[in-house]
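I hope you will forgive my troubling you with a question about protein structure. The matter concerns a single protein, recorded as an amino acid sequence and a row of C-alpha cells. Please examine both parts with care and let me know of anything in them that strikes you as inconsistent. Here, with my thanks, is the record as I have it:
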Amino acid sequence: MKYTLSFLFAALALFTNLAAAAAAEKQLIVDTAFVAEAQKHGALLWDVRSADDFRKGHIPGALNIGSVGTVLRFEHNEDYLPTPQIEKILGDAGIDPAREIIVYGDKADPYVYFGLFTVQYFGGNNAHIYHGGIDDWKAAKKEISTEPAKHLPVALKLQPHPELAVVTEEVVSKLNSNVQIVDARSPKEFSGVDIRAIRGGHIPGAVNIPFQKNWADPDTPAKLAKKEVASKDGMGLKSLDQLKTLYAKLDPEKETIVYCQSGVRAAESATVLKDLGFKNVKVYDSSWLGYANALSTPVDDVSFFNVGQMNNKLDTMQRRLDAMERVLSEIVHAMK
C-alpha cells in the first residue's frame, strides 16, 4: 500500500508539472526565463525595432527587418502591404511564421504586439511575445550582441487569416449586436478632443480602456521624462488578478473587437484579453483611421479636423523658423 501511494503521489506530481508546462506553452506573453530556454532550443527571435537600434545591441541570434510598423505597412493608411511583398520581406530576413517565434523589442512597445499579430495573421500558431523585451533582457544581465545574425532566406507562401481581424463594414454591421468593442486609445482620442483622422470621437457602444492601463504604472513614460523614476519597471504588465479586474465588466464568452488608431495599440490589448481567457477576440486592423475616414460610419462624440487651424499653426511655425534662421545667419556673419 505504501508503494502504491508513493507511485500515485509521484504520478500526480508529474501530471501537475506537465500541466503547468502545457499552460506556460499556451500563454502568449512570456518572461525572460521562457525566452532564454526558447533560445537554447532554437526558437526564432524576431526583434521588431529599427535597424539602428538593432545594431546597437540585441539578443544573440535575433533577426530584424527594421521597424515593423513602417516596413510592413503603407504609410498613408497604415494597412498591410500586399501579401507577396510581405512574403519577400520576411523571407529575405529568414523569418518564417511557421516556426516557433519569440517577438520582442523595447519594453511595453505596442509595436511588438503588432509583430505578434502579424505572425498570427499570416498563419503562425506557435508565437509568443516578450513584453519586457530588450530592457528586461539587459536587466537580467543576459548576453547582448551587436553582430548581425547569420540566417538563410526562406521562400514563403503566406496565407492570411482574415478571421483574426475585422474590416470597417463588419464593425458597422455588428454595432447593434451582442459584440463588445474595446477602444484602446487615450481618453482624449476617445472623447474627440485629440483628433487624428478626418473625424474625432469613438465607435458607438465602445468601452474606453487605454492600452497603458495594462501596465503596472501607466504614468511611467511621463515619470521617465520628468526623471521621477529611473527605469521602465512600471511598464511591466499588471498581475493576472489586476488585469482581470481591469476587464471585469467584459464577458469573456462574447465576441470582442479591439481597436485604436491603426491597430497597433489594439494588438496589445487583444493579446492580454486572449491570455485572460477571452474566447473570440479580433483586432480591427484599420481601426480609427479606417472607421473615421469612411464618413458614412456613425460616431459618438464626433468632432472634425480643422484644416484651416492646422495651416495657421504651420504658418506660425514657419515664421518662427525663418526668424531663427535670420538670427543664426546674423550671428555667423558677426563671427567672421
